[in-house]
What does this fold into?
Amino acid sequence: MLKSVVDLKMCLTMAVQSSGVTSVSTKNLILLISLAALWGASFLFMRIAVPEFGAVALIAARVIIAAMVLWPFWYFRESPSTRKFALDHWPALTVVGLLNSSIPFVFFAYSMLYITGGMAAILNGTAPIWGAVVAWAWLGTRLSISATIGLVLGFIGVVVLVGGELSVAGQGKILAMAAAAFAPVLYGIAANYTSEKLNGVSALSIAMSSQVTAGISLLPLLFWFMPESMPSVNAWLALLALAVVCTSLAYLMYFKLLVDIGSTKAITVTFLIPIFGSLWGALFIEEVITLMMIVGMLTILFGTALVTGVIKPK
It folds into this structure.
């Protein structure tokens, strides 16, 4: 495990250096890395809680608690006109809640009944790549040569990552890998849909409303997917950490970064989440980090850097 942690430390250093975030202030750099650590920890907490709650009940509780925590910030920090403008867009906010929260969250939670949180976190890192694919296919956005190369590298990374697991996988694990691989596709669709349909709606309004609509969408399913027995204290603590720290607090940190350093630099958090997701799993629940995972992760991260323009070949 020590060797795996050393390898991940090297990956973290490379990711920070290549992402360009070192050009921001020390305070914001610490905030950015802390945000990545929190979002990476969400996979650890899901891995701990999902066997006892089940995927649907866990995520329903996560988004409902997160919405309850975010609502006061939204209500008191946004002006009445801003809140009204957001609520006028409730159909689009509902779609975003489904595509960006309830469905992908459930897919990731289900996947972690069979795969490690580190594996899920790495697959989560493909979201910007899928965002570029959707923008090209749906909005006609042109892809540069470097972005195209990045897409190819990203897909190769996924093949390396998934291929190393499927060789020893049963049916449950195959479905889990498929769920974790498809969830970032929904993030890519949601990102483009948001830019098209929610232009002018504040990020805080989108985050809070998406948690509300995600919770509403999952409530009817609880009739079939409630836990058969009361989850343990550890599972409840993991749920609270997931909802309050990794969702509500993390969103508020992200909003501050958007204001302070802009969206281009803030999105570089994407490069750090897979590393932290793998690191926390290895440190706290002894998840195994394989060579194939590291190779796949580095390939995906490099491809993502090309797609997002963080790395621009001269």
Q: What stands out?
A: Residues 2-308 form one domain.
